UniProtKB/TrEMBL annotation:
<dbReference type="GO" id="GO:0019253">
    <property type="term" value="P:reductive pentose-phosphate cycle"/>
</dbReference>
<protein>
    <recommendedName>
        <fullName>phosphoribulokinase</fullName>
        <ecNumber>2.7.1.19</ecNumber>
    </recommendedName>
</protein>
<dbReference type="InterPro" id="IPR006083">
    <property type="entry name" value="PRK/URK"/>
</dbReference>
<comment type="similarity">
    <text>Belongs to the phosphoribulokinase family.</text>
</comment>
<comment type="pathway">
    <text>Carbohydrate biosynthesis; Calvin cycle.</text>
</comment>
<keyword id="KW-0418">Kinase</keyword>
<dbReference type="GO" id="GO:0008974">
    <property type="term" value="F:phosphoribulokinase activity"/>
</dbReference>
<dbReference type="InterPro" id="IPR006082">
    <property type="entry name" value="PRK"/>
</dbReference>
<keyword id="KW-0067">ATP-binding</keyword>
<keyword id="KW-0113">Calvin cycle</keyword>
<feature type="domain" description="Phosphoribulokinase/uridine kinase">
    <location>
        <begin position="12"/>
        <end position="186"/>
    </location>
</feature>
<dbReference type="Pfam" id="PF00485">
    <property type="entry name" value="PRK"/>
</dbReference>
<dbReference type="GO" id="GO:0005524">
    <property type="term" value="F:ATP binding"/>
</dbReference>
<dbReference type="InterPro" id="IPR027417">
    <property type="entry name" value="P-loop_NTPase"/>
</dbReference>
<keyword id="KW-0547">Nucleotide-binding</keyword>
<keyword id="KW-0602">Photosynthesis</keyword>
<keyword id="KW-0808">Transferase</keyword>
Length: 311
C-alpha cells in the first residue's frame, strides 16, 4: 500500500480528558508513518475563548461552547479534500489565542483532544475513532506531571483544575466513549515494587468486533523465557464481551516482552502501511511495556483501515 492516488487526509480521532495519554497512545502511528506522512492537530487550538475569557465567563475548556467545533469540522472536511487550512493556535504558556498558521494535509492527520466526536458532522468525517480512558488516579498523576513540568503550572493550580473539571468531563467528554472503535483503559498497580523494570500499569484495549477483512497478525509466545530466571513477566488476556449494545473484544496486558520478539509483527504492519523500513516500537528499548504493545495494536488497526480505504 502506498500513497499513489491519495488526495486527502485519513483522519484519526483520539478523544479523552486533558492529560489522559492521548499523545502517548497515538505515538505508534506517528513512528510508523513518520513526520512526512503524518501530522497531529491538538484540538486545544480550536478553543474559542482564551484562559482569561473562560475565567470571566465561568466556563471550562471542556464545555463545547468554549470550542469552535464548527470551524474544526470545516477544517477536517478541507483536509479530507486535500486542502490547506489556516489552523488556529492556542498558547498554553500564555493562555491566549495566537495567530493561525498554514497547515497542509498529510496522508494521516491525528485530531487529538477533548471533543473530536462531539458532533454528528465530526463523526461523519472521522475515519477511525479512539478513546483514551485511564482511571482517575492514573490520569491525575499524568496531568500533574505534564502541566507542572511542560506547561509551568503549579501543582496546587493543577489539582484545583482537576477538581473543577471532573463533573464537566462526565457531562461532555465521557459520553464520546460510545462512538469509539478502540477504548484504551489504563489502571495503576499499587505495588509498584513488584516490577523490576516494567511499568505499573495494566492496559485494556476494548475493541468493537469488526467484519473487516484483517491481515493475519501473530503475536509470539516465548515458552523458553518462562523457564529462565532472567525472563520477564508478561500478562496477556483475551476475551469477548459486551459494551452497551456492542459486541467487543477485550485484550488486557501488563508486563514486558523483548522488542525483538515482536519484530516480525512490526515488520508486517509496516509492510501493510507501505513503509517497510519504518517501525512502531521504540528502538531504544530492549524490552517493551504494555503501553508499547497497545501502541502497536492501535497502529495495526489504523493501518488496516487505511489500506482498505486506499485500495
Amino acid at each position: 500500500m502506498g500513497t499513489k492516488g491519495v488526495v486527502g487526509s485519513f483522519l484519526v480521532g483520539v478523544a479523552g480528558d486533558s492529560g489522559s495519554g492521548k499523545s502517548t497512545f497515538a505515538r505508534g502511528i506517528v513512528r510508523l508513518f513518520g513526520t512526512v506522512q503524518v501530522a497531529t492537530i491538538s484540538l486545544d487550538d480550536y478553543h474559542l475563548l482564551d484562559r482569561q475569557q473562560r475565567k470571566q465567563q465561568d466556563i471550562v475548556a471542556l464545555d463545547p461552547r468554549a470550542n469552535d467545533l464548527k470551524k474544526l469540522a470545516q477544517h477536517a472536511e478541507m483536509l479530507k479534500q486535500g486542502k490547506t487550512i489556516p489552523k488556529p493556535r492556542y498558547n498554553h504558556s500564555t493562555g491566549k489565542i495566537d495567530p493561525p498558521v498554514s497547515f497542509k494535509p498529510k496522508r494521516v492527520v491525528i485530531l487529538e483532544g477533548l471533543l473530536p466526536f462531539h458532533t454528528k458532522k465530526l463523526r461523519e468525517l472521522m475515519d477511525f475513532f479512539i478513546y483514551i480512558d485511564p482511571d482517575f488516579e492514573v490520569k491525575k498523576i499524568w496531568k500533574i506531571k505534564r502541566d507542572v513540568e511542560e506547561r509551568g503550572h503549579s501543582r496546587q493550580a493543577v489539582l484545583a483544575s482537576i477538581a473543577e473539571r471532573s463533573p464537566h468531563y462526565e457531562r461532555f467528554i465521557a459520553p464520546q466513549r460510545r462512538y469509539a472503535e478502540i477504548i484504551v483503559n489504563i489502571k495503576g498497580e499499587r505495588s509498584e515494587e513488584r516490577y523490576r523494570r516494567g511499568s505499573p500499569y495494566w492496559v485494556r484495549l476494548v475493541q468493537k468486533l469488526t467484519e473487516e477483512g484483517l491481515s493475519d497478525i501473530h503475536l509470539p509466545l516465548d515458552l523458553s523465557a518462562m523457564c529462565q530466571s532472567e525472563g520477564e513477566e508478561l500478562y496477556f488476556e483475551y476475551r469477548k464481551g459486551m459494551r452497551g449494545k456492542s459486541k467487543v473484544s477485550k485484550i488486557e496486558i501488563n508486563g514486558l516482552i523483548a522488542r525483538e520478539a515482536l519484530s516480525e509483527v512490526e515488520a508486517r504492519i509496516a509492510e501493510i502501511a507501505g513503509r517497510p523500513q519504518a517501525h512502531v516500537l521504540p528502538r531504544s528499548k530492549r524490552y517493551v511495556t504494555e503501553i508499547d504493545i497497545a501502541q502497536l495494536i492501535i497502529a495495526w488497526r489504523v493501518v488496516e483501515r487505511i489500506a482498505a480505504k486506499e485500495s
